[in-house]
Amino acid sequence: MESRLRLFTGNSNPKLAHDIAERLDMAVSPAIVGTFKNGETRVRLEDNVRGCDVFIIQSTCMPVDHSIMELLFMVDAARRASAKKVTAVIPYYGYAKQEKKTSGREPISAKLVANIIRTAGADRVVTVDLHAPAIEGFFDIPVDHLRAAPLLVEHFKHQRYSDVVVVSPDAGGVARANDFRQRIRASLAIIAKQRPRPDESEVMDMVGDVEGKTAIIVDDLISTGGTLAHAAEMLLKRGAERVYAVATHAAFAESAKRTLADSRIEKIIVTDTIQVPLNGEDRKIECVSVASLVGEAIMRIHKDLSVSALFH
Ligand code: R5P
Predict the structure, then answer these.
(1) Ligand 1 contact, 94 CB (< 6 A)
(2) From ligand 1's centre to the CA of 99, what distance in Å?
(3) What is the Å distance from ligand 1's center to 227 Cα?
(4) Same domain, 210 and 121
(5) How far is the CA of 204 from the centre of ligand 1 (A)?
(6) How confident is the model at residue 204 (pLDDT cuts 50, 70, 90)?
(7) Do 167 and 111 share a structural domain?
(8) 173 lines ligand 1 (CB under 6 A)
(9) What is the share, in percent, of the chain residues with pLDDT greater than 90?
(10) pLDDT of 264 over the 60 cut
(11) Does the predicted TM-score (pTM) go above 0.90?
């Protein structure tokens, strides 16, 4: 019988989409996803999707608003072409840091984007390591929230560090760091961070013993790289022997690579939820692919199997 599974990709991370398709032993279906001369986004799915289980793979990374529009139009196109189910696969969910107001007269952008994705016609969302797990509740449709930790942990299991401490670089990341710590049986330290201005961070204090230890900072995303660089300074000042860092999403701002290269972190492990071209100068940065994780989740959703079973 002809397969009813279809994968499409926008322009934000086609490499990951093709890697996912390869894991599923299929191809990404053709689509035109471009721009008209007047700047408007143009979409056309070039494969029949009638009655199909359609997965649209698109990280909402830079250019963030454009990536979101491509995703919305692709969902709408699939819906109007009589797809049976449409799943938005958003390996990196942009605007996730705007999940609450930090002062008056601000939007809750992560919630509004969730509303729009639902309105466009998505039946389900698949995503990886949301900045705040509560964002799942912003959607009135099922969300499969995948965790990259099992993949990232693998990277450290083969290393022979004697005394390891896992570090949360801010209070908001404690649960994430604690989960990582439990997986590698290490101790935990927590840094208190503040943001004097947007995109700037300052380390205020730290709890936990890091002296003589290998410190692994665990974060969900890297933007400017300031959080990690400042955390590393604090850890070394408190006697850590060496510092590594792990972050799922390489949402690098322009200055990030330089900041990380200049920092005293020995190695930084990220995933390919966002495509970052790495060259010789980026020797500290290593990338772990989430293609197998996302591919397995897609297959399980398509076959109505448990997705949470992936994490036990
Ligand atoms: C903050 O709550 C996040 O978890 C990251 O720590 C933060 O977004 C990293 O940003 P930057 O690299 O600009 O310091």
Answers:
(1) no
(2) 14
(3) 6
(4) no
(5) 15
(6) confident
(7) no
(8) yes
(9) 89
(10) yes
(11) yes
Asked if 10 contacts 92 with a C-beta cutoff of 8 angstroms, the reply is no
**Atom from ligand 1 closest to the CA of residue 251:** 12
Which entry of 193, 237, 267, 284 is annotated as an active-site residue?
A: 193
E strands along the chain, which residues? 5-9, 31-35, 41-45, 53-57, 85-90, 124-128, 143-146, 164-168, 187-194, 202-207, 214-221, 242-249, 267-271, 285-288
Residue 312: per-residue pLDDT: 58
Number of separate domains in the chain = 2
Indicate if 237 belongs to the active site. Answer: no
Per the CB < 8 A criterion, the answer to whether 183 and 191 are in contact is no
Nearest protein CA to atom 5 of ligand 1, as residue: 221
Which domain range does residue 68 map to?
Answer: 5-147+291-311
Give the confidence band of 157 by pLDDT, cuts at 50, 70, 90. Answer: confident
Residue for token digits 């690098």?
252
The reply to whether 283 and 305 lie within a common domain is: no
Tokens 């692994």, residue located: 216
What ligand 1 atom has the least distance to the C-alpha of 227? 14
